[in-house]
User: What shape does this take?
Amino acid sequence: MTTVTRLLAAVLLVTSGYAAEPAKVDGKWNASLQLESINSSPSLTFKQEGEKLTGTYQGYYGASPLEGQVKENEIAFTVTMTIEGSKISGHFTGKVEGDSMGGAVEFEGAGSGKWNAIRAK
Assistant: This one.
């Protein structure tokens, strides 16, 4: 083996197990939801520990907990709220691009749609 071949082999061994850092989403975000029957402008507050997300969805029905994950620039989280005594979940998936994020959302009883958010200043 030549020196260059050995060096390339070493680089491949080191980088083959490399996973990219998750996008940094910790903090408050101003969101917009467009569902089949509802438009809303909640705020999202994320607490991030590595890929794990917890936090709060603050919307029309008050504060509700959220849990999810962010892997590289892919984000997914679920909001669970209580409305008139019934628990309802919203499932969000999307991509993070710097100080903005967005994607698809599915809310039980309210249908599916799109969402986006911008980091609050």
